[in-house]
Amino acid sequence: MAKTLRKHTPQGIHCEVSFDCPEAERKTIRAIARRARDLYLEHRVDRSVMDIDMDLAATHCNGNPLRLDDLLKADDFNLLHDVSGIAKHLNRETGKLEGFFSPRFSQPEA
Question: Which residues are paired to 16 by β-bridges?
Fold first, then answer.
């Protein structure tokens, strides 16, 4: 069963944000989220693992697949660049990134 979040807008139109990805990718996303949360705490920024996890999964599953293994191994600066940029530019109703932001660890376009 696909994991999706359905939102209803004031106009009655609904959008579905998918969080459906293989378990191995979910585990990597969780590991990235935990690492990012720890880095945020070092800088006295309070973001939950769940918020980071959902942002990454929404981005990865809705049109901007990420190189998750590479992101997990990235240096602190580049990991926080992508996680923070996603948090700032993610449209949480569609799962799409806006404002021309492109994560450094996006998969290349085919």
Answer: 6
Burial (0-12, 13-18, 19+ Cβ within 10 Å), 69: middle
What's the pTM? 0.86
The amino acid at 11: Q
pLDDT tens for 31-80 read 999 999 999 999 999 999 999 999 999 999 999 999 999 999 999 999 99
CA dihedral 2, 84, 93, 25 (to 10 degrees): -10
Q: Give residue 109's pLDDT.
A: 78
Handedness of CA 24, 29, 34, 35 (dihedral sign): positive
Q: Tell me how far apart the alpha carbons of residues 100 and 89 are, in angstroms, rounded to a whole number.
A: 8
28: pLDDT strictly greater than 70 = yes
Q: Which residues lie below 8 Å from residue 15, measured CB to CB, with a gap of 6+?
A: 6, 7, 9, 93, 94
Helix (H) or strand (E) holding 25: helix 23-42
